[in-house]
Amino acid sequence: MRPEDLIHFCTPSRLILGCGARAQLPQLVQRMGWRHGVLVTDKFFSESTPWVREYVDAANALGVETVVFDGGAPDPTTVLCDEATAQLRTEKLGGAVDHVIALGGGSNIDLAKALCLTLPTGRPVREFVGDIGACRPLPLVAMPTTAGTGSEATPGAILLDPTNATKVAVMDNSLRPQVALIDPEFTYTCPPRVTADAGIDAFTHAIESFLTIDSSVYDRGGHPDPGYSGRSALTMLFAREAMRLCFAFMERAYSDGSDKEARIGMAYASIYAALSYGSAGLNAVHGVAYAIAGKTHRSHGTTNAVVLPYVLDAMGDVRAAEFFEIAKLMALNVASAEEAVLAVPVAVRDMVGRLGIPTTLPALGIEQRDLPDLERDALGVTRLAKAFPVTDVSERYGAIVRSAFSGDLRGLGASTTTEGNP
Fold this sequence. Notes:
This protein is of the alpha/beta class and 422 residues long.
């Protein structure tokens, strides 16, 4: 317990987790009283897996009509959302849609969240950016196929606005799925690269929310129902368990995709991390990563991973006790919080490298002349910058970007061997 906490904790209405759990969905949808749905996915899942057809047929047998939209794409755009809205509204369901189902990674789930807002009226999704107003979105069922994104437990959707190549957020607690159904079997065939990117994304969510600004000082802007509200003892509980599971299973799942125990462990890690950051929020890692992605167009997991060790290195002085906890979870051979502050960033970077992910900005194609733009663009994501728990945010963002370019970490000379190992 932390008496100073001001907890505002939001979750999906129903969380279902288990191998084969997808088979429960048709009956659950029928029981919820829904009869006309849209299933949002992409061509891979509609054409190369049996999952879409199995659901549509089983739901139809129970009197639930489902239209499939399989035009999902990585980094969905506002244009894609509006085109999908127009297409679906001209089909038989029209305004009768009473629920949306998402099958896929974070991109498909984000698109589905946006469609929950646009399908009832046909309004452009840009009208909902920043504040959805009095609109009540359609209920959403989210079925993630990767262990990492956490979109099945969060209040927002991120879309790319192609007019200026920036990402915009549609955000409200009513966009959290009514049902988050996590079936680890969906992840069994994920290739190593996707497994690594998703896994490090889950780990970033866990460690970043574990270290973020406290709920007692989080700026909620007077909002009575904030999507994010800072870390608390409750969010930190989920973050700890997510980190423990990542340390136990992430590299195993990456190196051997047939390791079912590791796949299931990472499914748990992902949702636990989402339950943490879905209320606590994030900060500098994601802020800088968004800027890097704008320059390189690399995956979200990769851009998070490359900057994560350097953000950790820049905040040890304000979170030393937490670093000591993390070091123990990693089984690092450290005797004090001061040692942990130096050892953890190095150990995390080593872990990133073992997942085959670049560990410096030049490895992503970033040049030194790009650094001022990265710093400026990262600071421009004010929601995340304000949540970084330091007093000199601008100076530390600059230091993070420079260190990520040079590869410098303060603890490079420190031992990060695990306990009991030479």
